[in-house]
Specification:
By secondary structure, the chain is mostly helical. It has eight helices and no strands.
């Protein structure tokens, strides 16, 4: 084992030494991945993972560098791109991926991708028709 491999192993043992914490955080992420279109909040996620919501929030941020809500929004917005590319309406896309308001969905989408959902959909449709 090289010096660098030993150092990586040493640091990994310090940072990721608590297997139950890792399982809890990874389990939370998997739950979000498989249920992102549903109404999810920190209370529900903490009940599913049998931990306090504040502890879960700290652990998630520690291991992933973002909160569960930030990841949930990211996951939903990525799914929105796929649905919009297929021609689904903006309103239907909004509700299908778990947002409660087309206005907030559009605002978050534009902030994340630099285009409104309508602009993105037009661009995706144009690109798809030029490659066909």
């Amino acid at each position: 084992m090289t010096f660098y491999q030993k150092e990586i192993s040493r640091i990994k043992n310090i940072c990721y030494s608590n297997k139950s914490q890792i399982d809890r955080v990874v389990g939370t992420r998997h739950f979000i991945i498989h249920n992102f279109e549903k109404e999810l909040n920190l209370n529900l996620l903490s009940r599913v993972r049998c931990t306090s919501k504040f502890h879960l929030l700290r652990l998630y941020k520690l291991y992933y560098g973002q909160t569960p809500k930030q990841y949930l929004i990211e996951k939903r917005l990525e799914a929105a791109k796929q649905l919009l590319s297929r021609g689904l309406s903006i309103t239907d896309t909004c509700y299908d991926i778990g947002f409660e308001s087309p206005c907030s969905f559009s605002t978050l989408f534009k902030a994340r991708f630099g285009l409104s959902p309508k602009e993105y959909q037009k661009k995706a449709t144009f690109t798809k028709s030029n490659h066909s």
